[in-house]
Amino acid sequence: MTSTSPGPAAPAPAAPARTVAPMLGAGVIVPTGDGRVLVGRRTTAGEPPTWSLPGGKVEEPGESFEQAAARELAEETGIVLPADAMRVLAVLLDHELGRPRLTAAVLAPPSLAEALVTEPHACAGWERFPVDALPEPMFYPSALVLGAWLPGMDGVRRPGTHGYRIG
Predict the structure, then answer these.
(1) Residues 6+ apart with CB under 8 A from 102
(2) Residue 147: CB atoms within 10 Å
(3) Which of 27, 45, 55, 126 lies in the 20 to 30 Å Cα band around 78?
(4) DSSP code string of 25-83
(5) Is 1 helix (H, G, I), strand (E, B) or coil?
(6) Which long-range contacts does 61-65 make (Cβ < 8 Å, 24+ apart)?
């Protein structure tokens, strides 16, 4: 009778690489034309209160950053501006949430339309502030978007955040 030794155990299969889908969104700069910009009091559950531009995730199949910006602006504030009047200024990449977050800085045409609180669970109110007297603390992606638009505000970028100007 012959016996065979089992030999070394085969290595366990490698765990599949953890892939986390990036978040894609747009932050919308709505200037007034007289040196002010629309900003909301962000009150999202589980997060400290901050100030934020209107904006949100790209959600629809085939949706562009400009279309997402126009949709989110209308959903969050009731302000309806055409997507073809929106202009992407920059794309900003951060990893603050432990996964990639790509935010387009989108400039809307000037508007003084009344901003309504349509999502009271996420926003306590909209106000227009002079660009040289913006409230703090600012929601990080909104600060990045404003930094892509306003000279001298791009110093808010934290390590590991990258900005790509368009045009």
Answers:
(1) 22, 23, 24, 25, 91, 92, 93
(2) 21
(3) 45
(4) EEEEE-B-SSSEEEEEEE--TTS--EEE-SEEE--STT--HHHHHHHHHHHHH-----G
(5) coil
(6) 65/26, 65/104, 65/106
Query: What is the pLDDT averaged over residues 108-134?
Result: 97
Q: How confident is the model at residue 42 (pLDDT cuts 50, 70, 90)?
A: very high
Please answer whether residues 146 and 138 qualify as being in contact, where contact means their C-beta atoms are separated by less than 8 angstroms.
Answer: yes
| pLDDT for residue 49 is more than 70 | yes
Closest C-alpha to 76, from 142, 136, 140, 137: 142
Location of structure tokens 């502030």: 129
Sequence letter at residue 43 = T
Do 79 and 115 contact (CB within 8 A), yes or no?
yes
Alpha helices in 81-154 (DSSP H): 140-149
Question: Per-residue pLDDT tens for 63-108?
Answer: 999 999 999 999 999 999 999 999 999 999 999 888 999 999 999 9
pLDDT of 62 > 70? The answer is yes
What is the spatial distance between Cα 31 and Cα 120, in angstroms, rounded to a whole number? 23
Residue 84's CB is within 10 A of a number of other CB atoms, namely 10
Q: Which residue has tokens 């990258």?
A: 162
The DSSP bridge pattern shows strands 23-29 and 101-107 to be parallel
